[in-house]
Design goal:
single chain, about 160 residues, alpha+beta, Aspartate Aminotransferase, domain 1, 5-stranded antiparallel sheet, 4 helices, about 30% helix
Protein backbone atom coordinates (compact mmCIF):
# COMPACT_ATOMS: atom_id res chain seq x y z
CA UNK A 1 0.00 0.00 0.00
CA UNK A 2 1.22 3.54 -0.74
CA UNK A 3 2.36 5.70 2.13
CA UNK A 4 0.30 8.85 2.68
CA UNK A 5 2.12 11.86 1.26
CA UNK A 6 2.51 15.15 3.10
CA UNK A 7 0.71 18.18 1.69
CA UNK A 8 4.07 19.81 1.01
CA UNK A 9 4.80 17.06 -1.52
CA UNK A 10 1.91 18.29 -3.64
CA UNK A 11 2.30 22.04 -3.07
CA UNK A 12 6.09 22.09 -3.61
CA UNK A 13 5.47 21.64 -7.36
CA UNK A 14 3.80 25.08 -7.54
CA UNK A 15 5.07 28.67 -7.39
CA UNK A 16 5.82 29.95 -3.88
CA UNK A 17 2.78 32.25 -3.79
CA UNK A 18 0.44 29.34 -4.65
CA UNK A 19 2.15 27.14 -2.06
CA UNK A 20 1.83 29.88 0.59
CA UNK A 21 -1.85 30.41 -0.21
CA UNK A 22 -2.44 26.66 -0.04
CA UNK A 23 -0.79 26.46 3.35
CA UNK A 24 -2.86 29.43 4.61
CA UNK A 25 -6.08 27.76 3.40
CA UNK A 26 -5.00 24.50 5.03
CA UNK A 27 -4.43 26.31 8.33
CA UNK A 28 -7.83 28.01 8.08
CA UNK A 29 -9.57 24.67 7.47
CA UNK A 30 -7.93 23.02 10.48
CA UNK A 31 -8.64 25.99 12.76
CA UNK A 32 -12.27 26.27 11.62
CA UNK A 33 -13.46 22.65 11.49
CA UNK A 34 -12.36 20.53 14.45
CA UNK A 35 -11.56 16.89 13.71
CA UNK A 36 -10.71 17.50 10.05
CA UNK A 37 -8.76 14.76 8.27
CA UNK A 38 -6.48 15.67 5.36
CA UNK A 39 -5.88 13.35 2.39
CA UNK A 40 -3.67 13.98 -0.61
CA UNK A 41 -5.28 12.98 -3.92
CA UNK A 42 -2.21 12.87 -6.19
CA UNK A 43 -4.17 11.76 -9.27
CA UNK A 44 -6.47 14.77 -9.01
CA UNK A 45 -3.69 16.97 -7.61
CA UNK A 46 -6.05 17.95 -4.79
CA UNK A 47 -5.90 18.03 -1.05
CA UNK A 48 -9.19 16.67 0.33
CA UNK A 49 -10.66 17.51 3.73
CA UNK A 50 -13.16 15.29 5.48
CA UNK A 51 -14.69 14.42 8.82
CA UNK A 52 -14.52 10.85 10.10
CA UNK A 53 -17.78 9.05 10.73
CA UNK A 54 -17.26 5.52 11.97
CA UNK A 55 -15.26 3.68 9.30
CA UNK A 56 -16.17 6.27 6.68
CA UNK A 57 -15.20 9.85 6.05
CA UNK A 58 -17.45 12.68 4.92
CA UNK A 59 -15.69 14.96 2.42
CA UNK A 60 -16.53 18.61 2.77
CA UNK A 61 -13.75 20.66 1.15
CA UNK A 62 -10.72 20.50 -1.11
CA UNK A 63 -7.80 22.64 -2.16
CA UNK A 64 -6.92 22.50 -5.85
CA UNK A 65 -3.67 24.25 -6.77
CA UNK A 66 -2.88 25.35 -10.31
CA UNK A 67 0.07 27.35 -11.68
CA UNK A 68 -1.61 30.78 -11.64
CA UNK A 69 -4.34 30.34 -9.04
CA UNK A 70 -5.64 28.03 -6.35
CA UNK A 71 -9.15 26.83 -5.51
CA UNK A 72 -10.92 26.20 -2.22
CA UNK A 73 -13.81 23.95 -3.16
CA UNK A 74 -16.79 22.40 -1.45
CA UNK A 75 -18.02 18.85 -1.98
CA UNK A 76 -21.72 19.74 -1.70
CA UNK A 77 -21.27 23.33 -2.80
CA UNK A 78 -24.51 23.53 -4.75
CA UNK A 79 -26.35 23.16 -1.42
CA UNK A 80 -24.50 26.08 0.20
CA UNK A 81 -26.39 29.35 0.39
CA UNK A 82 -24.39 31.85 -1.65
CA UNK A 83 -26.53 35.01 -1.86
CA UNK A 84 -23.61 37.22 -2.92
CA UNK A 85 -22.59 34.72 -5.61
CA UNK A 86 -19.02 34.43 -4.37
CA UNK A 87 -18.68 30.79 -5.43
CA UNK A 88 -17.75 29.59 -8.90
CA UNK A 89 -18.83 26.39 -10.61
CA UNK A 90 -22.35 27.10 -11.78
CA UNK A 91 -20.95 28.78 -14.90
CA UNK A 92 -18.99 25.58 -15.57
CA UNK A 93 -22.12 23.44 -15.27
CA UNK A 94 -20.82 21.61 -12.19
CA UNK A 95 -23.64 19.63 -10.59
CA UNK A 96 -22.19 19.26 -7.09
CA UNK A 97 -19.04 21.32 -6.48
CA UNK A 98 -18.68 25.04 -5.93
CA UNK A 99 -15.41 26.81 -5.26
CA UNK A 100 -13.51 30.02 -4.58
CA UNK A 101 -10.58 30.90 -6.81
CA UNK A 102 -7.66 32.92 -5.47
CA UNK A 103 -5.30 34.48 -8.00
CA UNK A 104 -2.88 33.87 -6.36
CA UNK A 105 -3.47 35.16 -2.83
CA UNK A 106 -6.59 35.08 -0.66
CA UNK A 107 -8.83 38.06 -1.44
CA UNK A 108 -11.92 37.09 0.57
CA UNK A 109 -12.33 37.90 4.25
CA UNK A 110 -11.25 35.00 6.46
CA UNK A 111 -14.52 35.15 8.45
CA UNK A 112 -16.49 34.61 5.22
CA UNK A 113 -14.32 31.64 4.25
CA UNK A 114 -14.67 30.19 7.77
CA UNK A 115 -18.47 30.50 7.51
CA UNK A 116 -18.50 28.60 4.19
CA UNK A 117 -16.20 25.93 5.65
CA UNK A 118 -18.41 25.41 8.72
CA UNK A 119 -21.56 25.19 6.63
CA UNK A 120 -19.87 22.80 4.18
CA UNK A 121 -18.80 20.55 7.06
CA UNK A 122 -22.34 20.65 8.49
CA UNK A 123 -23.77 19.63 5.11
CA UNK A 124 -21.29 16.79 4.75
CA UNK A 125 -22.29 15.28 8.08
CA UNK A 126 -26.00 15.30 7.27
CA UNK A 127 -27.51 11.93 6.36
CA UNK A 128 -27.52 11.32 2.62
CA UNK A 129 -31.33 11.43 2.55
CA UNK A 130 -31.30 14.90 4.15
CA UNK A 131 -28.83 16.21 1.54
CA UNK A 132 -30.96 14.67 -1.20
CA UNK A 133 -34.05 16.42 0.21
CA UNK A 134 -32.18 19.74 0.26
CA UNK A 135 -31.17 19.21 -3.37
CA UNK A 136 -34.76 18.48 -4.37
CA UNK A 137 -35.96 21.56 -2.54
CA UNK A 138 -33.28 23.67 -4.25
CA UNK A 139 -34.13 22.23 -7.67
CA UNK A 140 -37.86 22.81 -7.32
CA UNK A 141 -37.40 26.60 -7.04
CA UNK A 142 -41.13 26.90 -6.54
CA UNK A 143 -42.22 28.89 -3.54
CA UNK A 144 -45.89 29.33 -4.21
CA UNK A 145 -47.85 27.59 -6.94
CA UNK A 146 -50.74 30.07 -6.69
CA UNK A 147 -48.71 33.15 -7.68
CA UNK A 148 -48.23 33.94 -11.35
CA UNK A 149 -45.09 35.96 -12.20
CA UNK A 150 -45.81 39.51 -13.39
CA UNK A 151 -44.17 38.95 -16.76
CA UNK A 152 -46.51 36.08 -17.68
CA UNK A 153 -49.55 36.93 -19.77
CA UNK A 154 -52.74 35.46 -18.44
CA UNK A 155 -55.09 34.21 -21.10
CA UNK A 156 -58.77 34.59 -20.34
CA UNK A 157 -61.75 34.02 -22.56
CA UNK A 158 -61.92 37.77 -23.21
CA UNK A 159 -58.20 38.37 -23.78
CA UNK A 160 -57.17 35.41 -25.95
CA UNK A 161 -54.64 36.85 -28.45
CA UNK A 162 -55.52 34.06 -30.90
CA UNK A 163 -59.03 35.46 -31.26
CA UNK A 164 -57.69 38.89 -32.31
CA UNK A 165 -56.23 37.61 -35.58
Amino acid sequence: MDEPQPVEFLLDDYPDVIRDTGMALRSLIFSTVAGTVETIRPGWRWIAYSLPEGKRVRNFAWIGPERKHIHLGFEHGTLLADPDRLLHGAEDGLKQFRYFTFEPSIDVDEAILADYLRRAADLATLPTAARRALALQRDSNVDNLTTVPDDWVLLTSTSDPRSEA
